[in-house]
């Protein structure tokens, strides 16, 4: 892949120079969904699918961006002066908003962008699948700026700047989980992250005779245009109601029993369901991480299944296709657990499956899903990966 990228880089940017190579992983959240923006725990790992980039400094203050994933639509680079980056683009070529947002946020925080950059991207993350292609692109761009311009940005700051770019420039009010997992991933480990304090620890991702299989519903999700922001607003409303009688800073300060105690404060029943999901999912994430550390895959799997049910019934971000994929998986032999992963409204499920049953899992789900939806699912067997950074070639 890198050699093909080098050839494209030379053609697109009219250069024979040798650019630096970078890689940023996607992520899959094993459990702990829609808790990050409520100050709770998540348990993701970086995966070995992601976005590659080649980059070099140029002799101007111009940022030139090109994606091999869209070269059929846009055969020439997007170019802009740093001083001209004011707000996100609408209409065509909106993928450039993610690197433009990073440049904007870095300048906002006082970093001096002393040279223009030529950047070529090429990813193998399926677009719209909920594996954090946007976070991978954002964190990758921070790493490129930091390395090539000597900005000295560490992994935690890279995650925070990336989240800020997505919140304030792109306009998607995501939490910190995706960017943190992409930036701070560690091969053969998952991350237990407290999204309120950013305290984190690594847990060995030892699945024994099992593997992680991601099943793509091939229903693309678009969180910016979905009800994602509404869900967050509803959680904020529940928090405001409860804060009238109890001093808490976020919903996930509560245990499930405490939420039961103060549920009377939340007058809107739909808003209460959103809070029930956030609080119960936070408890599940902590218990699931403990189970995985102890090698108790059976408990881990049951908690994954319960997570999906809550995302379906309380947070209501699943769709029939995701419910079908999870339901089919629950009925198959050798499936430890299965749930939707990512923001929802499309995208993927993540399943832990015994190695000897993996082929049957893909065959049966592929057949039944196609028969019931007319869509063919895609399967990805993945491993964990290190976070974004320069490639040593």
Beta-strand percentage?
Answer: 15-25%
How many domains? The number is 2
Here the CATH topology of the largest domain equals Ribosomal Protein S5, domain 2
Category by helix and strand content: alpha+beta
Order of helices and strands: HEEEEHEHHHEEEHHHHHEEHEE
Shape: globular
Give the tags:
Ribosomal Protein S5, domain 2, 393 residues, single chain, alpha+beta, 22% strand, globular, 4-stranded antiparallel beta sheet, Alpha-Beta Plaits, 12 strands, 11 helices, 8-stranded mixed beta sheet
Describe the structure.
- The chain is globular.
- α2 (97-108) crosses α4.
- It is an alpha+beta fold and 393 residues long.
- The strands form two sheets. Strands 1, 2, 3, 4, 5, 6, 7 and 12 form an eight-stranded mixed beta sheet that branches.
- It folds into two domains: 2-203 and 385-390, 2-Layer Sandwich (Ribosomal Protein S5, domain 2); 205-382, Alpha-Beta Plaits, CATH 3.30.70.890.
- The chain has helices spanning 2-12, 97-108, 133-149, 155-170, 177-184, 228-243, 256-262, 269-293, 297-313, 320-330, 358-373, and strands at 20-31, 41-58, 62-67, 78-81, 116-123, 189-194, 200-204, 210-216, 335-341, 348-354, 378-382, 389-390.
- The mean pLDDT is 93.
- It starts with a helix and ends with a strand.
């Amino acid at each position: 892949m890198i050699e093909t990228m080098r050839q494209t880089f030379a053609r697109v940017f009219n250069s024979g120079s040798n650019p630096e190579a970078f890689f940023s992983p996607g992520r899959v959240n094993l459990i702990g969904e829609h808790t990050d923006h409520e100050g709770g725990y998540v348990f993701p790992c970086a995966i070995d699918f992601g976005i590659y980039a080649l980059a070099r400094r140029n002799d101007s203050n111009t940022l030139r961006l090109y994606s091999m994933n869209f070269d059929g639509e846009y055969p020439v680079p997007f170019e802009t002066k740093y001083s001209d980056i004011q707000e996100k683009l609408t209409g065509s070529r909106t993928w450039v908003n993610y690197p433009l947002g990073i440049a904007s946020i870095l300048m906002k925080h006082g970093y001096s962008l002393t040279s223009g950059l030529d950047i070529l991207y090429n990813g193998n993350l399926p677009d719209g699948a909920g594996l954090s292609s946007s976070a991978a692109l954002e964190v990758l761009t921070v790493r490129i700026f930091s390395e090539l311009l000597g900005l000295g940005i560490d992994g935690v700051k890279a995650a925070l700047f990336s989240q800020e770019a997505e919140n304030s420039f792109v306009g998607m009010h995501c939490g910190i989980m995706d960017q943190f997992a992409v930036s701070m991933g560690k091969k053969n480990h998952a991350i237990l992250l407290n999204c309120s304090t950013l305290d984190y620890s690594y847990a060995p991702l030892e699945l024994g005779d099992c593997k992680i299989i991601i099943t793509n519903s091939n229903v693309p999700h678009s969180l910016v245009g979905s009800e994602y922001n509404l869900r967050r607003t509803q959680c904020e409303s529940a928090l405001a109601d409860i804060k009238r009688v109890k001093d808490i800073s976020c919903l996930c300060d509560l245990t499930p029993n405490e939420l039961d105690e103060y549920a009377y404060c939340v007058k809107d029943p739909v808003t209460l369901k959103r809070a029930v999901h956030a609080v119960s999912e936070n408890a599940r994430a902590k218990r699931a991480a403990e189970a995985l550390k102890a090698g108790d895959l059976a408990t881990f799997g049951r908690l994954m299944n319960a997570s999906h049910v809550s995302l379906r019934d309380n947070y209501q971000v699943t769709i029939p296709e995701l419910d079908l994929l999870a339901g089919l998986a629950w009925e198959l032999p050798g499936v430890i657990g299965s749930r939707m992963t990512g923001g929802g409204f499309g995208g993927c499920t993540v399943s832990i499956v015994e190695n000897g049953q993996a082929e049957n899992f893909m065959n049966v789900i592929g057949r039944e899903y196609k028969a019931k939806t007319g869509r063919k699912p895609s399967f990805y067997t993945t491993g964990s990966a290190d976070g974004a950074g320069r490639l040593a070639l």
